[in-house]
Specification:
heterodimer; A: mainly alpha; 15 helices; B: mainly alpha; MetI-like fold
Chain lengths: 355, 310
């Protein structure tokens, strides 16, 4: 620890004007001036954070304003995007965004909540404990530290999932997920083609591979937040359930998950916010086609992918339309994120009542 | 609730409490446990698949050449992405210079100088809003604010976009780190006649430093992997950042004010390429990028653990 030295240095008796009795002294004029300047800098930079949000929203809104005036609400319902004829519509992109996000979220939430339960209930540790007990009799000494360690290791691995850049997932999706789903997709569209969701053939990129990769990307967020919600459930509730004779899963599904449900729902909403704004995986895997289709094998477009694909080569007119699309995306994610944050806040408050 | 009659021992059929796989409820519980375990394993599969492919496909081309050569054109053999590594460092460096001072000093205000003011609450709320901002919208903002104004794609435009994404991470982690410094240290400093500034700069910030650095590291790791905000702000370039030797050091403003390549955008551009050579390079670039990101991330987490111990 370097702290005591750092603290004592400026205040040592030798430098405090020779007053050997006390190391304390009032600040000098220069120090007071420096104090005012530093505080001013901190306040300014704190305001700079607020200004960033305001400027980001205002700048996007302001640049989009001419396009909003020109295209009006018809922009939201239009189905063609043709820069040469100046016709812009983002209905397929909005629908595609919602479709891929919901499908990805459904998959991600299913697995994410399962892993959260797995982590919060120390399944891994118990499994290993059982294994150890079988191998060398009851090993109680190791058991006490085992749950924490196993959970930490698994959590680190899940966090690694979150650290991998989305463009790498996109690359992986192109070379692993698309070939892997091709076979099952062909079978499904041949045999169950009368169902609207399997009505087209998978020709490479499409909604399904994009949603699978999206699910992997929202998984860490959902797992981390819902695990926190599950761990926050007071142990006495679980003990009461066990005391009444509930099996482990009756306790989990009947008591723990309902108690943590607001938190878990908040986690899902936060994951939804992430899925809506995710760009690279979708730009690389969804197929970038303005198609409206129920089929999960059909190529599609999303707002974020539309921006990523059209911005680099856009002319002035198209940039205006893209700014409008960005504004729509901003409004959607903002609404979802605020809803998620409010839910989590309510979950925290509700938990206070139980304790 | 209180109206329910109390349960007496005679009401409970003890057979219902028996635990054995022959009982449906025990069997269901056991099956669900198994299902959860299988799902957890299944969710780990992508991670190992990604890492495996990165090492196998990316490692195949790894060598000195990829760090020193320029990206190959279509149908050209060999090549590398030295310029993209330099570009990534330059753009992330610019973003760090922009976001870290604002983030740390903003956090000092929020945690130390005015923790209960309305400004602090607003700053915290804004930082949380920024955390949820889709990265592509940071790019749209930088496009409107920098590219449209200067009239060209440039490294600073990419830096601004990444800085918007880094700022909330730096600020919120720094705030948390500052808060974890025990109050008695502040009181001791103030009691000895230190100004608030001296207290912050000599006592609070030094002891919160590992936590603050963790936030910076996490932000840098996130920024280095971001692609979406760079595609139309920094764009890409097949050339070195500077025209005169050494070509990998930017020497003038003009070197920065032009399209700048990054690893992430290179992976994006080459991933859809029909040419095997470019696809191979995309995998190698992905390996290098993931290595950099994980290295920064792990360093940051080490720091966090180290700070938790001291």
């Amino acid at each position: 620890m370097s702290l005591p030295r750092a603290a004592a240095e400026p205040l040592s008796p030798a430098r405090a004007g020779g007053d050997a009795e006390s190391i304390a002294r009032p600040p000098s004029r220069g120090e007071r001036l420096a104090d005012v300047a530093f505080r001013g800098a901190c306040v300014t930079l704190a305001w700079a954070t607020i200004a960033t949000v305001v400027v980001v929203v205002a700048r996007i809104g302001w640049t989009a304003a001419p396009a909003v005036r020109e295209h009006g609400l018809a922009f939201l319902a239009g189905t063609t995007w043709d820069a040469n004829r100046g016709t812009f519509g983002i209905l397929p992109a909005i629908v595609g965004t919602m479709y891929t996000s919901c499908l990805g979220l459904a998959l991600g939430a299913l697995f994410g909540v399962a892993i959260a339960i797995f982590l919060a209930e120390h399944f891994l540790a118990r499994g290993l404990e059982m294994l150890l007990a079988m191998l060398e009799g009851a090993e109680r000494a190791a058991a006490s530290t085992l749950p924490g360690r196993c959970e930490d290791a698994l959590r680190v691995v899940i966090e690694l999932l979150a650290a991998i850049p989305s463009v790498v997932y996109g690359l992986w999706g192109i070379f692993v997920v698309i070939p892997a789903v091709r076979g099952p997709a062909a079978w499904l569209s041949d045999h169950l083609g009368w169902l609207p969701i399997f009505s087209t053939k998978l020709s490479g990129p499409g909604i399904l591979p994009a949603s699978i990769v999206l699910a992997i990307m929202v998984l860490p967020t959902i797992t981390a937040v819902s695990r926190d919600a599950l761990v926050a459930v007071p142990p006495k509730l679980r003990e009461a359930a066990f005391g009444l004779g509930a099996t482990r899963w009756e306790a989990i599904l009947g008591v723990l998950v309902p108690t943590a449900s607001t938190g878990i729902f908040g986690a899902v909403i936060l994951g939804f916010g992430r899925a809506l704004g995710e760009t690279m995986a979708l730009a690389m895997l969804a197929g970038n086609a303005n198609v409206l289709s129920w089929s999960v094998f059909s190529p599609a477009n999303t707002l974020a992918a539309l921006l990523a694909n059209h911005f680099p080569e856009a002319g002035t007119v198209e940039v205006g339309a893209l700014m409008y699309a960005a504004l729509v995306l901003l409004a959607m994610t903002l609404a979802v994120n605020v809803a998620g944050a409010l839910l989590l806040q309510r979950a925290a408050k509700a938990m206070h009542g139980i304790r | 609730m209180s109206s329910a009659p109390p349960i007496s021992a005679g009401d409970v059929d003890l057979v219902d409490l028996e635990r054995s796989l022959r009982k449906p409820r025990s069997l269901l519980s056991w099956a669900l446990s198994l299902a959860t375990g299988v799902m957890t394993l299944a969710a780990l599969f992508p991670l190992f698949s990604v890492l495996y492919l990165l090492v196998v496909r990316g490692g195949a081309r790894l060598g000195l050449a990829v760090f020193t050569e320029l990206p190959p054109a279509a149908l050209m053999p060999g090549g590398g992405f030295g310029n993209a590594i330099v570009g990534t460092l330059v753009i992330v460096g610019l973003a760090t210079l922009l976001s870290v001072p604002i983030g740390i000093l903003g956090a000092v205000y929020v945690a130390e100088l005015g923790p209960d003011t309305r400004t602090a609450t607003t700053v915290r709320f804004c930082a949380k809003l920024l955390t949820g901002l889709p990265s592509i919208l940071a790019g749209v903002f930088a496009f409107a604010a920098v590219v449209a104004v200067t009239g060209r794609f440039s490294a600073p435009a990419g830096g601004v976009a990444l800085a918007v994404l880094m700022l909330p991470i730096v600020l919120l982690t720094a705030e948390e780190a500052l808060r974890s410094v025990p109050p008695r240290m502040r009181e001791a400093a103030l009691g000895l006649g230190a100004t608030r500034t001296q207290m912050v700069l000599r006592i609070v910030l030094p002891s919160a430093l590992p936590g603050v650095l963790t936030g910076v590291m996490l932000a840098v790791a996130r920024a280095a992997g971001e692609t979406a905000p760079l595609i139309f702000t920094a764009l890409f370039s097949d050339f070195w950042i500077s025209n005169s030797a050494p070509v990998f050091v930017p020497k003038a403003i003009d070197d920065l004010m032009k399209p700048t390549p990054t690893l992430a955008v290179l992976i994006y551009n080459f991933s859809g390429s029909p040419f095997e050579n470019q696809v191979e390079l995309a995998w190698t670039a992905a390996l290098v990028l993931v290595f950099i990101v994980l290295l920064v991330n792990v360093t940051g987490q080490r720091l966090a653990r180290w700070s938790a111990r001291s």
